[in-house]
Every structure is written in C-alpha cells, then in structure tokens.
Amino acid sequence: MSKRLSFVLLSILLATTAGCSHRHAQEIDARLEAAENNAATARLRADEAYNKAEQAQRAADEANQRANRITDKAKLK
Hints:
mainly alpha, 97% helix, 77 residues
C-alpha cells in the first residue's frame, strides 16, 4: 500500500510539474520572440537613421562645394 501511494504521489507530482514546465517554456518562447521583434525593429530604425545621416552628409558636402565655388568666383573678381 505504501509503495502504491508513493507511486501515485510521484505520478501526480510529475504530471503537475510537467504542466508548469510547459507553461514556463511557452513564456520563455514568447519573451524570446518579443525580444527578437524588438531587436529587428531597433535594427530597422538604426538603418533608417544611418541612411538619413548619409543623406545629410551628402547635402552638406554639396553645400560646401557650392560655397567654395562661390568663394572662388568672388576672389577672381
């Protein structure tokens, strides 16, 4: 009787912990997926910021070249 009771209690314990482990694994998977989505969003925003910075640099370079040309023409006069 004692062995049977021990077996039943052990079976119940294993069944309940298996359910908790499954829920815990699902929670970890959900958090991991959310972190991956956040990282992908951050990469996208960083890429967009980098592209805008490159555009600003090109515009500044063009403005600098125009200013140099204007300065050179003024010196020639």
